[in-house]
What does this fold into?
Amino acid sequence: MKRVIEGVRVVLMGMANAFLIEGNEGLTLIDAGYPGKEAAVFGTIRGLGRSPDQLKQLIFTHGHPDHIGSAAAIVRETGARTYMHPLDIPMAESGGPFRPMRAAPGLLRRVMCKLFYHPDERLEPVAIDQPLTAGEILPIAGGIEVIHTPGHCAGQVALLWRPGRMLFAGDVCTNLMGLGDPVGIESLTEGRASQRKLASLSFDAAGFGHGAPIARDASTRFRNKWGKKSFA
It folds into this structure.
């Protein structure tokens, strides 16, 4: 259990990250990792001196297997209310198949995409209680802004937790050996636009589906990477 900033813990879910936000009205989980990793969430909750039934919300950045894999088990244990962008809800509620992706630019990403992404994979389905709307402020944990950031996945959203000035970027980008592209992408053009969109925002900390979180000066690093460049 690692603290990122006050009120946020990163939960390691295999090779993917989830994030737990502490709020006065209960706990909120961002993403649910690979299948069979629900114990990591429950262990983090108990490590805070809380119980799993205090997890009230489960918000997904998108509907890929490494972000919804343990969702059904978590909801079954906690009764948490679930949130997802409408474009990805059918994948979550069917448990697959998933939309095809191609590798993002670079040899390593081509290899990793073939190894880790399988569109025909099947998961235990999870029902989504509330669709997310771009630009809305969820009245959760003091306010979470929904930012639609397609490219990696059509229903990908980033989430800006206003009280902590922390951005949950999902797979708009990774932080593996520095900020970079996700492993796979549905639309490179949309993905670049989403990276530039995040680079235009102001936030202090950032969390990623893959790679280490950034605890301070995160938006400066985003601007340096994507704010002043033009992409093909």
Notes: The chain has seven helices and 16 strands. The chain has a mean pLDDT of 95.
